[in-house]
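User: For my dataset I need records formatted as: sequence, then structure tokens, nothing else. Please produce one.
Assistant:
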Amino acid sequence: MPQGVRHALITGSSRGIGRGIALALAAEGVNVAVHYYRNEAAAKETLGQVRARGADGLLVRADVTQPAQITEMVQKVKGEFGSLDIFVSNARPEVPEFFQPPLEITLAQWDAAFDSQAKAFLVGARAVLSLMGEGGRILAVTYAEGSRTGGLQPWVGMGSAKAALESLVRYLAVAVAKRGITVNAISPGWTDDSVLNTLPEQAQQLIRGWHERGWTPMGRLGTPEDVGNAVALFCSAKARWITGQVIYVDGGASLMNPEVPTEIQIG
């Protein structure tokens, strides 16, 4: 990895998983460009916590469904940091903007999902590459379970977009491998203080109970800190030989068999 202070741009880092990633990297001395779109107050809080951990950073605002705004955001980061070592594509629209089943989803909702994921990742990755040298790290936050299943029907737009995102990770990984830059996807399971907390209370309790009773073998939901620590691990020099992979960060939930009751699987 490059010597001296490292710099990161994390989209959607004003709260939730993005904030967890920002704070984990800040704890390792990485300066962070905290991205937000609507919630400036939350972004300022994240930046304050970044600074409390001894790092520094700045706020950047952009609608990641608009390619021109992504490019402008990267130019602002270039002006402040000069170079970039880490890019994490994490932002997505709020649930109502895409959450409809396949027979009802509008093309505008479908586009909101795809524009915020595969397209935003492609535009962002290509823009930051001019700022990266050997040892650069590019990561995308996915939800691999949602990208390969079909039961949660209203997730069709985002699930399809995440599937495209994961495919793009592999293609980009090959494209930049000779530059010593890695590209990977991080796939959290259900995580507290994230999209889960926007669901109706009854749905939240059902999901929490299901995972605590055994769907997650470790017996709890993940936290933004858990995901942030995984990202920090893959941003380290020791991860330089890992690229083009989807890394599950879910306490083992993805290992469970949906056809068998959890009581039988784990006893």
